[in-house]
């Protein structure tokens, strides 16, 4: 398995979204051993189903009770996660340029 860059490990989706929660939980299956990978995949699927039940309740409460204020909050937090990923990518490019200069 190839080594992932730090920017590839950043998940931009919100932790309390269906895709964000699934991506974060699925990271536990990133192992080399195929038997362990299968066992962890089964555990991850069970955890994802539980997380999605929680997310469904979360969305109902937030959108029904708080409405438009929640959209504004989500936009700010998403931009913060995207900025973190972009800074990591920039740092990786600068490091690659430095390594190339040293050769």
How is this structure best described in words?
The chain is built from four helices and no strands. It has helices at residues 6-9, 18-26, 34-66, 68-102. The chain has 103 residues and is mainly α. The protein folds into two domains: 14-66, no CATH class; 67-103.
Concise structural overview:
The protein has 103 residues and is mostly helical.
Descriptors:
103 residues, 2 domains, mainly alpha
Note the run of SSEs as H and E. HHHH
Cα gyration radius (Å): 18 Å
Judging from the principal axes of the Cα atoms, what is the shape? flat
Largest sheet: none
Question: Would you identify the regions where 5 or more consecutive residues have pLDDT less than 50?
Answer: none
Overall domain count? 2
- Which class best fits the helix and strand makeup? mainly alpha
Question: How many helices in DSSP terms?
Answer: 4
- State the helical fraction: over 70%
Number of strands: 0
Average pLDDT rating: 86
Tell me the strand percentage band. Answer: under 5%
Distance between the termini: 26 Å
SSE topology:
Blueprint: H1 6-9, H2 18-26, H3 34-66, H4 68-102
Helix pairs in contact: 2-3
């Amino acid at each position: 398995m190839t080594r992932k860059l730090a920017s590839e490990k950043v998940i931009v989706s919100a932790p309390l979204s269906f895709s964000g929660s699934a991506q974060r939980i699925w990271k536990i299956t990133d192992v080399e051993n195929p038997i362990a990978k299968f066992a962890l995949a089964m555990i991850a699927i069970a955890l994802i189903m539980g997380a999605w039940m929680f997310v469904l309740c979360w969305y109902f409460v937030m959108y029904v009770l708080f409405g438009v204020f929640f959209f504004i909050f989500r936009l700010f937090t998403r931009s913060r996660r995207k900025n973190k990923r972009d800074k990591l990518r920039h740092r990786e490019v600068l490091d690659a340029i430095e390594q190339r200069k040293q050769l």
